[in-house]
Amino acid sequence: MAIPLHAPRVNNNDDTVRVLRLLVQRGDAVRAGDFVAEVETEKASVAVEAEQAGVVLAVVPQVQDVVAVGSVLVWLGATIDDPVPDVASLDDPLVGTMAGTMVPTVKAAQLLERYGLSAVDVPASAGRLSARDVEAYIDGHGLVPIAAASSRSAPRGAPPVAPGTLQALTPGERGMLRTVLWQRQEAVPAYVELQYEAAAWDRVAADYQRREGLLINPLLALLAYRLTRIATANPRLTSTLVGEERWMYGAVNLGFTVQSDTTLYLAVVADAAALTCAQFIARLTTLQRQALAHRLHPSDTTGATIGFSSMARWQATRHIPVLAPQTALIVAHASPSADGRGILGATYDHRVLTGSEVLAAITALSRPEDQP
Amino acid sequence: MTPSVSDPTGEKRTIREKVVALAARRNVDARALNDGDVILESGALDSVALLELIMWMEATFDLTIHQTDLSLANLGTIDAIAAYLQRTRNGTAQSDRDVAR
Question: What is the pLDDT of residue A254?
């Protein structure tokens, strides 16, 4: 029986994804966990992996196609002779569902993309969002297509004068590019920092490690966990702006930076505030192991609502991190000086938060005696 | 790899060489590390490098190290790692994990 592999949801607000790469073709044998495709939105790119072993029966889209979240990318079978379900015509409903909204057809999804719309913007006349629905909405609102070179895309500058060659960015590098561009084009970043007694936190971490018999020093995990508790007490820290309204996130999803070779991941501990400290440390350690092995699941790198980054490992005494898209705060931890004093900083979106409330948050974070 | 009385399989030497190599990437000379020294406390490896050592062990010795096995008792020293590998082969790691906790 044919098994479909669907286009994943990459961001909460994107109902379509663009197919960047197709890594398999009909007849290829794949193992569970093998990557079969790579898709992207304006904010992130993710690899799609086979959920089980099999033989590729069909690859549905082509590279650069814009497809709806939930649509079929690849059909897998036990043998190459397994029948493939009929491939939908361009305006047929797509396989899969999207929670809370109507699934657009392929043609409708392409129109949404061209006009910079989301499926939630456009009312559907029937059970599915059709191209006709989108066209009616466009006509009714007098919309024009967004420029081919979107303001959210990286500007294509003139090549340098000195001779050289162009190289395609890796998925990780493209993700970082989008993150940096989001901060430059959407957020109003600001930065505050304070000095604190890092040695006090070191003692807390050492005591915890000894008490629990942990192999790994839990200092960074404890700091990150403490940040989730602070964010629970002040939900504004996990909010962002949508137009001129504040979007209050429903969960504290802690994004934690992990450097693996030349790739910087933002591993996300989902609903971190619901975890005990021990559960949080275990979950974060698991994500770190997966990131170091470049085996993070796409869902583990999306949805961050607050961030934590440390460059203490590289002996950096100060660093100013970049905000993850649609977050308002990322805390920066650095290497303390020899006298046990360190710097805790935070980059924040000044549209969303004030410097004083961010300073209050990192002040609370700097005090291990307040550890819940 | 030269087996010895205290290291009949030569695994300790293999592990030690990997620890020294990972430490060298951090510009730390760990050649004086003893098999009974706690690796993290010695400063040879930090937490991330320890996780890299875990990943290397899984690949080299063809095993899966469970999250709950990441304890000082199981993997804190080269001696402990060698003993853990032995227990894993004997199928007794689970019970030792419970003891370690």
Answer: 98
Provide ipTM, 2 decimals: 0.81
- The answer to whether residue A274 neighbours chain B at the CB level (below 8 Å) is no
pLDDT in tens, A241-252: 998 999 999 999
Nearest CA in chain A to B50: A216
Q: Which of B40, B50, B55 sits opposite A293 (nearest CB)?
A: B55
Residue B62 tokens, joined: 């063809």
The answer to whether residues A95 and A7 touch, using CB atoms and an 8 Å cutoff, is no
Q: Is A45 on the interface with B (CB under 8 A)?
A: no
Shortest CA distance from B25: residue in chain A = A314
> Which chain B residues have a beta carbon less than 8 Å from that of A213?
71-73, 100-101
Q: Is A176 exposed, middle or buried (0-12, 13-18, 19+ CB in 10 A)?
A: middle
- Does B67 contact A286 at a Cβ distance shorter than 8 Å? yes
Using CA atoms, how far residue A79 sits from A16, A27, A33, B19, in Å, is 30, 9, 18, 45
Contact at CB, B70 and A215, closer than 8 angstroms: yes
One-letter amino acid of A174 = R
Contact flag A285-B51 (C-beta cutoff 8 Å): yes
A34 CB-near residues (< 8 Å, 6+ apart): A24, A49, A50
The per-residue pLDDT for range A182-219, each reduced to its tens digit, is 999 999 999 999 999 999 999 999 999 999 999 999 99
Q: Are A4 and A95 in contact (CB under 8 A)?
A: yes
- Answer whether A215 sits within 8 Å of B52, measured CB to CB: no
Distance CA A189, CA A352 (A): 10
Question: What average pLDDT does range B49-54 have in this prediction?
Answer: 95
- Set of chain B residues whose Cβ sits within 8 Å of the Cβ of A257: none
Burial of A41 (0-12, 13-18, 19+ CB in 10 A): buried
Judged by DSSP in three states, A363 sits in helix
Decide: A112 and A118 in contact? Cβ < 8 Å.
yes
CA-to-CA distance for A105 and A103, rounded, in angstroms?
7
CB half-sphere exposure, A287, CA atoms < 13 A:
26
The pLDDT of residue A298 = 80
Q: Which amino acid is at A136?
A: A
Put simply, whether B72 touches A (Cβ < 8 Å) is yes
